[in-house]
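Chalcone/stilbene synthase C-terminal domain-containing protein
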Amino acid sequence: EQVNADGPDILDSRSHLYPDSLRTMGYDVGSAGFELVLSKDIAAVVEQYVAEDVTTFLAAHGLNVSDVGAWVTHPGGPKIINAITASLNLPPEALELTWRSLGEIGNLSSASVLHVL
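Structure:
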């Protein structure tokens, strides 16, 4: 089933580095290629920082969480999706597209967001 919606409006973008998070998520590059670095603490980092980051980002554009009609998030796994939902106090169906993408193809790393779209 496809969801029909207007395309996204990209207003801005930001990135943040969090204290003591160097080995939380990323890649080590060596002679054998890329090796995934993935800490079990990722969901806790999301819960700690995402709400403030998102609300600050939206406020800079005169928006708040309730103004967002559709959420596109990285489907990094159930713990990550649940952490985003909880930290932003979203209804369970708000991340339906993210859950669907996770169920259909799993985690595609950064390309996952494009699949959710």
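Strands lie at 25-30, 33-38.
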